[in-house]
C-alpha cells in the first residue's frame, strides 16, 4: 500500500507542529523518518494512523483518505504497549479474537506470527519474563498478525542496548522482506536509518518541514562498515548538523 502526504500541516492550539509535509512512500518500501526532538515525528505517525486529524493537507493510502483505511494500518509503539497480564500467545491472539476470527484460524495465525518473530518457545511466558528485545518482537508479532498493509513504528528499539538493537534491525529487515509491508519507522539513530531504509526523510526542527528525502541505494544485507554505508551516514549527519536546534536532537 502506497502512502502519500500532500502539504500536511498540523497545529496544537495556535502552535504549529508540522509545516506543509509532502512525501510519497511506494508500496512495500521502508521509510525512516528522523529529526530533532519535538519536530513532530510522533504527531505525523498519529495523523497517518488516523488517530488524529491533520489541520491541513491530505493523507492518502493508495489514493483514499486514511480514515477509510484504518483497518489496514498497524502501529508498534515503544515498549509498554503489551498486556502484562497476558502470555505472549494471548498478547498476539487477543486482537484477533476481537476481530472475530474462527478458533482454528486464530490459533494458526497466532502460531505463525509467534514463529515469524522467533518466540514459539516462549509462547507461555508473560511479558515481564521476556527480555527487552523479545518484548519488542512480541509487539511486532501482535501488530503484524492483523496483516496490516502499512506498519508504523515509533522508535521501537530506543530502549534496547546497542547489541540487541543491531540484532532487532536485522530481524526487522528479514520480517519486512518476508511480509512485504510498507513501513514508516521513526528513529533518532542515523545508523539505524541507513541500515533499515529504502528512503530517509529528515525533518527540520519544529515546525517540522521536510529538509531532505534521500533514497538509500544499498544492497541487503547491509554492512555498517562498507564505504557506501559510511558515506550515507556522513551525508545525513551533515544535513542534521546544519539544521538549527541541533542541541535538541
Ligand atoms: N496532544 C498534544 N497536545 C498539544 N501539544 C502536543 C501534543 N502532542 C504533541 N504536542 C507537541 O507537538 C510537538 C511535537 O511533538 P511530537 O511528539 O510529535 O515530537 P517528536 O518529533 O515525536 O519528538 P521526540 O523525538 O522527542 O519523540 C511538541 O512540541 C509537543 O509538545
Ligand atoms: Mg516522538
Total domain count:
1
The radius of gyration over CA amounts to 18 Å
CATH superfamily: P-loop containing nucleotide triphosphate hydrolases
> In which range does the helix fraction lie?
25-40%
Show the helix and strand layout.
Elements: E1 3-12, E2 15-25, E3 30-34, H1 41-49, E4 56-61, E5 64-65, E6 73-76, H2 88-98, H3 103-116, H4 132-145, E7 150-154, H5 162-179, E8 182-186, H6 190-196, E9 199-203, E10 210-215, H7 227-241
Parallel strand pairs: 3-8, 3-9, 6-7, 7-8
Antiparallel strand pairs: 1-2, 1-4, 4-5, 9-10
Helix pairs in contact: 2-3, 2-4, 3-4, 6-7
The chain binds adenosine-5'-triphosphate and magnesium ion (MG).
Brief characterization of the structure:
This protein has helices at 41-49, 88-98, 103-116, 132-145, 162-179, 190-196, 227-241, and strands at residues 3-12, 15-25, 30-34, 56-61, 64-65, 73-76, 150-154, 182-186, 199-203, 210-215.
Q: Could you list some keywords that capture this structure?
A:
7 helices, Rossmann fold, globular, single chain, 10 strands, alpha/beta, binds magnesium ion, 249 residues, binds adenosine-5'-triphosphate
Folded structure, characterized:
The chain is of the alpha/beta class. The protein has one domain: P-loop containing nucleotide triphosphate hydrolases (Rossmann fold). The protein is 35% helix and 24% strand. It is built from seven helices and ten strands. The strands form two sheets. The chain has a six-stranded mixed sheet, sandwiched between helices. A hairpin with a 2-residue loop joins strand 4 and strand 5. Helix 2 packs across helix 3. It is globular and about 50 Å long. The mean pLDDT is 92. Magnesium ion binds next to helix 1.
Amino acid at each position: 500500500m502506497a502512502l502519500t502526504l500532500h502539504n500536511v500541516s498540523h497545529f496544537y492550539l495556535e502552535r504549529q507542529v508540522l509545516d506543509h509535509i509532502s512525501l510519497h512512500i511506494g508500496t512495500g518500501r521502508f521509510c525512516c523518518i528522523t529529526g530533532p526532538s519535538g519536530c513532530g515525528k510522533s504527531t505525523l505517525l498519529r495523523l497517518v494512523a488516523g488517530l488524529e486529524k491533520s489541520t491541513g493537507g491530505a493523507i492518502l493510502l493508495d489514493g483514499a483518505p486514511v480514515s477509510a483505511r484504518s483497518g489496514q494500518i498497524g502501529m508498534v509503539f515503544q515498549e509498554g504497549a503489551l498486556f502484562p497480564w497476558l502470555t505472549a500467545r494471548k498478547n498476539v491472539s487477543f486482537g484477533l479474537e476481537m476481530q472475530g476470527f474462527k478458533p482454528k484460524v486464530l490459533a494458526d495465525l497466532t502460531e505463525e506470527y509467534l514463529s515469524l518473530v522467533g518466540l514459539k518457545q516462549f509462547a507461555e511466558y508473560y511479558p515481564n519474563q521476556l527480555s527487552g528485545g523479545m518484548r519488542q518482537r512480541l509487539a511486532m508479532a501482535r501488530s503484524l498478525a492483523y496483516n496490516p498493509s502499512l506498519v508504523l513504528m515509533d522508535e521501537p528499539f530506543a530502549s534496547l542496548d546497542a547489541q540487541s538493537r543491531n540484532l532487532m534491525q536485522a530481524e526487522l529487515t528479514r520480517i519486512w522482506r518476508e511480509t512485504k509491508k510498507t513501513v514508516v519507522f521513526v528513529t533518532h539513530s542515523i545508523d539505524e536509518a541507513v541500515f533499515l531504509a529504502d528512503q530517509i526523510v529528515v525533518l527540520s526542527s519544529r515546525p517540522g518541514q521536510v529538509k531532505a528525502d534521500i533514497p538509500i541505494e544499498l544492497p541487503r544485507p547491509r554492512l555498517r562498515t562498507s564505504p557506501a554505508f559510511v558515506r550515507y551516514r556522513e551525508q545525513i549527519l551533515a544535513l542534521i548538523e546544519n539544521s538549527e536546534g541541533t542541541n535538541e536532537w
